[in-house]
Design goal:
Length: 168
């Protein structure tokens, strides 16, 4: 039997995901522990390291999002999902895969915006080197919201990936 060919570069996980889908799927497993380490550093009062880690995470996430968006816009992902019992090409947005994607986007889009706002406000309002101060209450509130949103983005992303590109 001929192997199924899909648009774009195939991923490396052995499922139907494209290269960038697989990269982002795996990257989220690294992002969550790194976020936990970053918050642990705050608790140990290593605010400088928290800042560096958050900025590094932000840059990595931006690069991942841009390359991922290029991949997903250029190469129709629905062809990779056709083999899934949870996908229907005629009901792209109302089949389980489509609903899972909408829920995922409801997390992913606000997370990206929140991430940028929290970072820019922290850079503007904390002294250098960073120390708790007048910006602390706002940063803690929006920072925790960004962390929770990021966890939701990862979880809903993994569910979408499973339904669309793993399930047979
Ligand atoms: C999206 C990026 C960021 C997120 C999600 C984030 C998240 C957090 C969270 C959740 C806390 C509270 C921890 C606790 O409950 O004690 C915190 C604290 C803190 N963050 Fe961030 N942070 C980010 C970026 C930054 C940046 C860029 C700086 C420095 C310019 C910074 C400086 C601090 C400081 C100094 C604290 C200590 C808490 C205080 O002000 O009393 N953070 N951050």
């Amino acid at each position: 039997m001929l192997a199924q060919t899909y648009p774009g570069i195939d991923g490396f996980l052995g499922f139907r995901g494209s290269l960038m889908l697989d990269v982002v799927f795996l990257a989220m497993f690294a992002v969550l522990p790194l976020l936990a380490i970053s918050i642990y550093l705050v608790k140990r009062r290593r605010f400088d390291l928290h800042k560096k880690l958050q900025l590094a995470l932000g840059i990595l996430l931006m690069i991942a999002i841009v390359t991922f968006e290029i991949d997903i816009r250029l190469n129709d992902w629905t062809q990779r999902a056709i083999a899934s019992p949870y996908f229907s090409a005629d009901a792209k947005w109302s089949c389980p895969v489509g609903v899972a994607l909408i829920i995922h986007l409801l997390f992913a889009v606000p997370t990206t915006l929140l991430w940028i706002v929290v970072t820019v406000r922290a850079l503007r309002n904390y002294p250098r080197p960073p120390q708790p101060g007048t910006h602390s209450a706002a940063h803690k509130f929006w920072g925790w919201l960004a962390v929770i949103e990021m966890c939701g983005t990862a979880l809903t992303g993994w569910i979408f990936y499973y339904l669309a590109f793993i399930a047979t």
